[in-house]
Amino acid sequence: MRVPMSWLRAMVDLPEDISTEQVAALITEHTADVERIESIGGEVSGPVVVGVVVSADPEPQKNGKTIMWCRVDVGAGLNAEGHPKNSEGAEQGRGIVCGAHNFTVGDHVVVSLPGAVLPGGFEISARRTYGHMSDGMICASDELGTGTDHTGIVVLPPTFEGRALVPGEDARPILGIPEDVLEIDVTPDIGYCMSIRGIAREVAQALGIRFHDPYAESPVEPTDGPVPVRIDSPACSQFITIPVSGLDPAASTPGYIADRITRAGMRPINLAVDVTNYVMIESGQPLHAYDAAKVQGTLVVRKASQGEGLTTLDDTERVLDPDDLVIADDSGAIGLAGVMGGASTEMTAQSRDIILEGAHFDPMTVARAYRRHKLGSEASRRFERGVDPACAHAAAARAAQLLVELGGATAGEPTVVGTVPAMPQTRISCELPGRILGLEVSREQVIEILQASKVEVTAMGDSLTLVPPTWRPDLVDPYDYVEEVGRKIGFSQIEAKLPPLTAGGGLTRAQHDRRAALHAVADAGFVEVISLPFIGDSDLERLQLAAADPRRRTVRLANPLDDTRCYLRTSLLPGLFQAVSRNLSRSQEDVALFEYGTVFLAGEPARAPRPSVAHRPSDEELAEIAAALPDQPRMLAGVLTGNWLPDRWNGPAVPADWTHAVLLAQAAAQAVGVTLERRSDPLAPWHPGRVAALMADGATIGHAGELHPTVCRDFGLPARSCAVELDLDALLAAAPAGGRIVALSSFPVAKEDVALVVDAATAEDQVRQALVDGGGELLESVDLFDVYTGEQVGPGRKSLAFNLRLRAPDRTLKDAEAAQIRDAAVAEATRRFGAELRS
Amino acid sequence: MSGPNTNDDPGQHIAAQAGAEPATTVSQISALDPEQVQARVDEALAAIAAASTTAELKSVRITHTGDHSALALANRQIGSIPAAQRKAAGKLVGAARGRVRQALQERIGEVAAAELEATLVAETVDVTLPVADHPQGAMHPLTALIDMVSDVFTAMGWEIAEGPECESEWFNFDALNLGTDHPARALQDTLWVDPVSDGKCLRTATSPVQIHTLLAHGAPVRIISPGKVFRADEYDATHLPVFHQVEGLCVDKGISMAHLKGTLDHFAQSIFGDVTTRFRPHYFPFTEPSAEVDVECFVCHGASVGDPAHPCRTCRSEGWIEWGGCGIVNPRVLAACGVDTEVYSGFAFGMGLDRTVMVRNNASDLREFVEGDIRFSRSLLGEAR
Question: What do you get for the CA distance between the two ends of chain B, in Å?
Fold first, then answer.
C-alpha cells in the first residue's frame, strides 16, 4: 500500500512538526511494516519554475522529427533579456527547444532553468541544439520524477489554490513536490489498511488525535432505485448501484486526483475511472463503473454457470468456473465480481451515462477466482483481505458526488440490495491481554484501547463482551483482541523475561551420535556440501540402476522447478556428482565431498487424509497419514576424485581410491562405536570388483568403493572416482549402548605371527574373526600385516599374515601356552575356511 | 631395532666399553713419593683437560686410571709397604686417584653434554613445513550453525525435534490454521507430490514438526526444530527452492510474549553478540499475536542510521536486520493437537538459517550454499568446532 503523505494529512490533522520518518515509525510499531519512504521529486533542485508559452514554432528536422522552438516567459527576473548565449531576437522570455507537441501558446508549463538538477543527477544548462541556443528545458513528468508519462510535457492548470499562476514562481508547490510516499507492507489480516482512511485511523490512534471518517454513515436501508439489481448468491452481502448521467466526456481529471492516484501506484485513465480508483484508494472500497448504455436489464449477482464465458477488461476471453461469482445482465456475465469488469460494458471516452457499483463480496470467493484466472487487481487484493462491508454505499455516493462536481453529471437515486452483516461477538476476560502479552495492562486500559479501535465494549465485571467495527473482520477470537491491545500499546513495551526453567535431556543419543559421526567424517578429510534434492530420469539411467532397485521407487513432484529433475532424490550421489563437476570446472581437481540428507523412497500410492482441526485427530488417522508418506531415511554419502593427498615434500601424491571411500564410512562408524564389516557385493553404480557392502550387526547399511567406469564417463567424472553411500539412521541404530571398561593386565604380552592361506574370495575380517573366536579370551588382538597372492600360494588363493598378541590377566604366559592358543586360533580358521598355515 | 636417540646416549656408550681394557705399559712410581704421585696426577689431569671427545676420554681413562696406569700400580704397591708408612701412602694414592677419577667423570659429563648439544643442532628440522596426512575436511556452515543453535537451546533445557521433509497437507497446513484457501498452498509456493489430491508436499516450514511433537508429547514442551524447508521459489542470489530454518516452540502454563522476547534476546546474543531484538506487528496464521523479529545490527549497533558518511553494509544503515517471525501460538493450533488452551499457552518463532549465515558471515550469494564448492565450506573452519 502506497500512502502519499499529503493525502494522509488531508484525512487526519497531523501535527505540523511531525516528520515522515516519525509517522513511518509509528505505523511500523503499531500497524504494519513501512518498507520504504519514497521521496517524489525530492531529487529536484535549483530553478524549476512556472513558465508561460509565448510562442511555439514547429521546425521540421532532417531526422524526421519536428521540434518546437519556443519562447517561454519565466518572469521578469529570469527572462534573461540580452543573455549573451541567447542571441536570437529580443522577444520576451527564454528560447527553449522542446520535442513535445501537447501544448499551445498561453499554456503554463514547468521550466527547468540552467543550474537546475533533475532526478538522476541531470544538470540543466544552456546548450546549442537543432540550430538554436536552448536556454532551459520544458519538463515532462518522468523528467521531474513525479510520474512516468513521457508522451508530453506537463501542462499546468492556469490556477492553483484559487489564484492565477505567476511566471517565474517555484513550480514545486504546484507540482506537489517534494512529497514523501510511504510503502506499507499490509499483512493479510488488516485489509482495512489497504486504504488511506485505514492508515489515517491507525496514525490518529497512535498519536491520540481525533480522526474524522468521511465514509462513516448510518446504515442504508434496502431501496429500489432506477437500476434493478438482484443478489442470487450468499457470496455477496450487499450490492449498491448509483446511476450517474450526463457526464461531460471532455471533463478531465483534476491534477490533485491524478497526482494522488499516480503516487498511490495507479495510472490515471479518464475521469470516471480515476474517480472510482481515487475513492477506492481513499476508502478501501473497490467500485466499478459500467457504461449504462451497454447494460441490458437487471444486474444479477450469481455464480457462473458451467462453461459460461466472459471477456474481461483486459480483452481476454475467459471460461468461467461454477465457483466464480459474476455480475450478469440479460446478456450474461458482464463482470467477475471483485476481480475485473467485462469488456462489453466498458467505459469509453464517449460514455456519458454510467452506473456506479459498490458491493461487498466474500473474500475467499474473490481470492479463489482471481487465482484461478491469474488476475490479481487492486480490487481483488482488497476484497481478499476483507473490505469494510458497511462502506459500499458511502464510497459509491462519494464517487457519484465527485463526478457531479468534476464532470458536470447528475446523480440518480441509489439501488440498495442486501444488508451489512452483523459482526461477531466475542467475550474475553480483561486480564487475558496482559497475561498473554506479559505486560501490566489494567482493565481500564484494555477497554480504553479497544474503544479507541472502535470496538464496542460491554463490561460485566472482568468479563468484556466485544463487537468489532465493520472494517475489522480480523477480530474474532479472544487472542485477536490480545493482539489488538498489544499492537496499540506497542510490542516494544514488552520486557524480556526467560521462560521458567525445565529439565531437558539435551541432544538425544541418536542426535549426539549423528553429530559425532559427521564431525568424524569432516575430521577424516571430507568437505560437507549441501545439494538440491531433485533428480531426473537421466540420473537413474546414468547410475545404471536395475529395474528392481529400490532407488527407482521415486516420488514425483506435481510442479517440479525443473522438468528434467522431477523426482525427489533416492540417492545423494547424483547431487554429489554435480558438486564434484562444479569443483572440477573451477580447477579444484582433488575433491573429497560428503553430504548428509534425506532420500525419498515411494511406498504404495496413498492419499494422506485430512482430519478435522477442531480437535486432536485419532491415532488411527495419524497412523494413516504417516503411512501415506514415502520412506525418508537419512543417508550419508561421499564422493572422491583426484588425489587424496597431493605431492608433498615428505611423500608422493596419494591418489584417492576405494579405501578412502571405506574410510569415510569407517570414520562415521567408529565415532558411534560401530564396527562395520565388509563383503564383496556388486551393486550399481560401483565397479563390480571394487565395491563393498557395509554391514552393521549383519545387515547391509550401505556400499563403498570405486565407481563403475561407465558411470564415471556418463556423469563426467574422472576415471576411478570413488563413492560411498550408507543409511545413517541405520548406522546410528546399530550404535551400542553402555559398554564397560575391561580390566587392564600388566603382565607381559606374547606375540605370535601366523600366515594363513585361504581362498581368494574369503573375507579378511571373517578369517580374523575365526582367529579371535578360536584364540579365546587370552588373545588380546589380531592385526593383519600382510596380504600375498602369487606363485607361492597358487592361483585363486591368498595368504593373510596376522600378528597375534596374547596376554593373561593374572600371569605371564609360557611359550607352550602361547603356542597352544595360536594353534587353537588357526584351527578355527581352518575349520571355517580351510585355512592352511603357511610355513 | 634402534631408535635415532639410543646411539647417542653417552652414559650407555661409556658403560659398554668399561670391561675391555687393553694392557698398557707404564712407568712404575713410588706410592710413597708425593712428588711422583703429584706428577702423575698432573699428567692425568692435563690429559683429561685436553681430551675433547668421548673417544679421547676413553683412551685417557685407560691410560691414567686403568689397571696398568701408574696410579693403579702405585695403589697395588701399598699392601707391600711397611705398616708404619702404609696409611700415609694409602691416603696419598687414594686422594690422587680420587682427584683423577673425579676430573675424568666431570670431563665425561661435559663432553657428553657438548656432543649431545651438537647432535641436536645437527638434527634441526624446518618445523614450519606442512604436516598434513589427510586432506582438510570441513562442515558446511549451515550444519555448523545448526549445531551452535542446538547447543544454545539445549543449554536452556530445550530439546531438538525432527520430522519428515516430505509432509502431509494436514501437518503442513491444516493443523497450522492455514485454511484451505490460504494462498501459501498454491502451486507457485508449495512443491506438491504428484498427484496433488493425495495431500502430500515438501514441508514449507519446519512448523509441522511442532505439530508432531505436540501430538506425541503434549504440553509442556520446549523444542526447536532445525532443518530443510522447500518452496517453489526462484533459484537466484537471494532465493533458493531449498533452504534451512530453525523454529522454536515453548508451551507451558503462563507463557507470554515477554518469555518470547527473553528467549529471542538470548538466542540473538548467543550468535550475534551484544545485541537486542525488536518485534514489529505482522501476521501468521499459526500465531496470534504475531510479530516479525529484527535483530539489532551487530556491526554498527544502529550508529549508521542517518549517518551517510559511515554507512553499514550489514544492516544497510537501518540499524536492524530482519531475522524471522514469531508470536503466541494460535490457540486453534494447540486445540488441533489436543492441548488444553485454558491451561496452556505458548510461543513460537522461526528464522532462516541460510539468511542468518549470510548476515553473520558475510555470504553474498545464496547459490553458493548449495553449489558444493569446497572453498565455501572450508571458509568457516573455526565455526565448525
Answer: 41
Superfamily of domain A229-418: Phenylalanyl-trna Synthetase, Chain B, domain 3 (3.50.40.10)
Cα A808 to Cα A777: distance, rounded to the nearest angstrom: 8
Name which of A41-55, A414-428, B212-226 the model is least confident about: A41-55
pLDDT of residue B185: 74
Superfamily name with CATH number, domain A48-175: Nucleic acid-binding proteins (2.40.50.140)
Q: d(Cα A186, Cα B369) in Å, to the nearest integer?
A: 31
Complex confidence, ipTM: 0.87
In CATH, what number does A426-492 get?
A: 3.30.56.10
> Which residue of B129, B148, B165 is the best one to mutate when testing the A interface, meaning the one whose CB has the most A CBs within 10 A?
B165
**Fold for domain A750-837?**
Alpha-Beta Plaits (3.30.70)
Say if the Cβ atoms of B130 and A649 lie within 8 Å.
yes
- Quote the CA–CA distance of A333 and A341 in Å, as a whole number: 10
B157 to A501: CB separation less than 8 angstroms, yes or no: yes
Q: What is the pLDDT of residues A109-151, one digit of tens each?
A: 999 988 899 888 889 988 888 888 888 899 988 888 877 666 7
Confidence of residue A174 (pLDDT cuts 50, 70, 90): confident
Mutate to test the interface with A, among B150, B266, B341, B373 (most CBs of A within 10 A): B373
Q: Which residues of A touch B250 (CB under 8 A)?
A: 499
- Of all helices (H) and strands (E), which one includes residue B358? helix B353-361
Do the Cβ atoms of B288 and A504 come within 8 Å? Answer: no
Average pLDDT, integer, range B184-192 = 80
Q: A582: nearest CA in chain B?
A: B373
pLDDT of res. A438? 96
- Judge: domain A509-608+620-733, CATH 3.30.930.10: yes
CA-angle at A756, arms to A750 and A761, nearest 5°: 135
Q: Which residues on chain B are in Cβ contact (under 8 Å) with A28?
A: 280
DSSP string of A306-354, one letter each residue: TT-EEEBTTS-EEEPPTT-EEEEETTEEEEETTTEEBGGG---TT---E
Q: Taking a C-beta distance cutoff of 8 angstroms, is the pair A601, A550 a contact?
A: yes
| Residue A76 binned pLDDT confidence (cut-offs 50, 70, 90) | confident
Cβ of A579 and B167 within 8 Å?
A: no
| pLDDT band with cut points at 50, 70 and 90 for residue B20 | very low
B289 to A479: CB separation less than 8 angstroms, yes or no: yes
CATH topology for the A2-41+179-207 domain: Phenylalanyl-tRNA Synthetase; Chain B, domain 1 (3.30.56)
* pLDDT 10s digits, B311-357: 998 898 989 999 999 999 999 999 989 999 999 999 999 999 999 99
Distance of CA B18 to the CA centre of its chain: 52
Q: Does B365 touch chain A (CB under 8 A)?
A: no
CB contact under 8 A, A610 and B261: no
Interface A:B, Cβ pairs < 8 A:
301
Cβ within 8 Å, pair A436-B328: yes
Topology classification of domain B141-384: BirA Bifunctional Protein; domain 2 (3.30.930)
The DSSP secondary-structure symbol of A121 reads T
Report the residue of A479, A553, A565 to disrupt the B interface, i.e. the one with the largest count of B CBs within 10 Å: A479
